[in-house]
Amino acid sequence: MTIAKQRSVPSFYHPAQVAEVYRVPYQQRAIDAASWRQEQQITPASRDQQRVGLLLIDVQNTFCLPEFELFVGGVSGMGAVEDNQRLCQFIYRHLGSITEIIPTLDSHTAMQIFHPIFWVNEAQQHPTPGTMITLAEVQRGMWQINPELQSGLRQDLQELKQHVLHYVSKLSAEGKYPLTIWPYHSMVGGIGHALVSAVEEAIFFHSIVRHSPTNFELKGDNPLTENYSVLSPEVLAAANGQAIAQKNITLIQKLLDFDYLIIAGQAKSHCVAWTVENLLTEIQALDPGLAQKIYLLEDCTSSVVIPGVVDFTEQGDLAFQRFAEAGMNLVKSTEDLPVFS
Question: How many domains does the chain contain in total?
Fold first, then answer.
C-alpha cells in the first residue's frame, strides 16, 4: 500500500492544554474545520474507499489528568497526559484517513461492586481504595456486601450475598484480576466522566471536517459487575444462572466491519487490555486472520501504577505481547502506518 501524506496540526492545538480542563469553543472550531477541510482538500468520510476506525477507550478526565481520581501515571508518572498529547497529534495528522471515531466512556454511580460503599467488614468499615477482595476473604466473611444497599439495589439481601460469593468465585476460576476496590471515579454527571478537553476538541474537529458522526459508547453502569471491556462485562450471570448483563454484540460487529481498526486509550493493563482481549476472542472464533487489521497505538496508552500500592505494568505488557503473537500490530503513533493509503 502507499502511505498517505502526513498532514499538519491546526494552530489552535497546544500540547500543554492536554493537561487542562477547558470549554471547547464548538462554533469557532466548526468554522475552523470548514477552512481546514478546504485548505487540506479533505473529503467526507462517506467517500472513503477503505474504512478506518479509531476506538478510543476511556480517554476521560478521571483517568487522564493528574488531579483526578484514577490518573494513569504509567511508568513515567505522567503517562496518560503524554499519551494524549501524542493521540491528539495523531488524530489531527490523519483526519483525512480516519473514517470514524468511537470513544468509550466509563460510566459509574456510587453504589457499584468495585466502590468502597458496596462492602463492609465485621466492624462495618468499608475497604480502602486499592483493596483487592479475594474469594477466600469473602468465603470467611472478612468482606461482605453492605446490607444497607439492598433497598437501593432492589434485591433480597440473601440473593446479594450469594451473588458476591459467586462473583469473586467466577473471577478466580477464570483467572481474571481479583475484585479491586477503586476510588469513586467516572461518576455520571461529574467532570471526571467527561473526555479530556483537548481530545474532545480533536474528536469534534474530526467530526466536522469529515462529516462523520462521533459514536460514543457508554459502559460500566451495572452495579453488580465490573466492566473493564466495552465489549463485555466481567461476569454475565448471577449465581442462579440468570443474566445480569450481556456482550455488546452491536459494537463487536461494527468494529470487525472496519477495513482497519486502530485502538488507543486508558488503561493499557485494564480497560484497553480487556477490550482487546474480548475482541480477539471474537476474531479467533470467526477468522484468526482478522487480527492483522487491528493496530494498537503503544505510545498512546499506559498501565495502572499506584505508587506504593500496585503496579500493573507487567500485566499490560504481557497482554500486548499476546495480542502481537495473535497477529495484531503494535505500532507508534508517529510511524507511517500502512492503514493510511
Answer: 1
Whether 148 maps to a domain, the answer reads yes
The mean of the pLDDT values for the chain is: 94
For residues 63, 109, 55, 74, the Cα torsion angle rounded to the nearest 10 degrees is 20
- Across the range 18-32, mean pLDDT stands at 98
Judged against a pLDDT cut of 90, whether residue 283 lies above it is answered with yes
Residue that is written with C-alpha cell 494552530 in the block: 11
Asked if the structure places residue 72 within a domain, the reply is no
pTM score, two decimals?
0.94
User: Which structural domain range is residue 134 located in?
Assistant: 116-180
Of the pLDDT bands very low, low, confident and very high (cuts 50, 70, 90), residue 87 is very high
Is 48 a domain residue? Answer: no
Report helix, strand or coil for 60.
strand
Residue 151 lies in a domain: yes
Q: Where are the alpha helices (DSSP H) in the chain?
A: 26-40, 61-64, 79-93, 135-139, 150-153, 157-173, 197-210, 249-257, 273-286, 313-325
